[in-house]
């Protein structure tokens, strides 16, 4: 059985929901239904930043990784961490995975922050994910929260975290990219 490692934050962890409703769990079910022999490891941690993910990555790389899904950055954006710093952290995570599992296929989940944030930050933040995906020649999900962010009926009362229905959409966005990387 091959491993798919998801390194993420509260979106990946399924904040406020039973673990079975988090999108990595939904994808595990989909893999099973479609006859794929993969095990998803959910290394989602609520509140995590790219720096935090980089710091805790080694302990998740003890087993071989066939596919690595990098879904960090939302908390960097919320905290206003400079785009350059976020880029460097994500690049270091990608580099570590390539060294540990050279055959691993890597997927980067893009994040965005609302354009209401003043100045160039929102644009720089959105662009950094696209540029990293291109520079590293890795698979890319343009915006993990596409169609979910700002939609009240798809989010928990806090308005930030997807509910069970919102998580299904995150799973759909991820599956669109993931399915092309799988081997029977």
Automatic annotation (TrEMBL):
Database matches in SUPFAM superfamilies: SGNH hydrolase
Q: Which Gene3D superfamilies match?
A: SGNH hydrolase (3.40.50.1110)
| Domain named SGNH hydrolase-type esterase: residues | 6-169
Highest taxon, organism lineage? Bacteria
**InterPro entries per the UniProt record, alphabetical:** Ester_Hydrolysis_Enzymes, SGNH_hydro, SGNH_hydro_sf
What residues form the membrane-spanning segments?
none
Pfam short name (any one): Lipase_GDSL_2
Q: Which PANTHER family match?
A: THIOESTERASE 1/PROTEASE 1/LYSOPHOSPHOLIPASE L1 (PTHR30383), THIOESTERASE 1_PROTEASE 1_LYSOPHOSPHOLIPASE L1 (PTHR30383:SF24)
* Protein name (record): Arylesterase
| Source organism per UniProt | Pontibacter locisalis
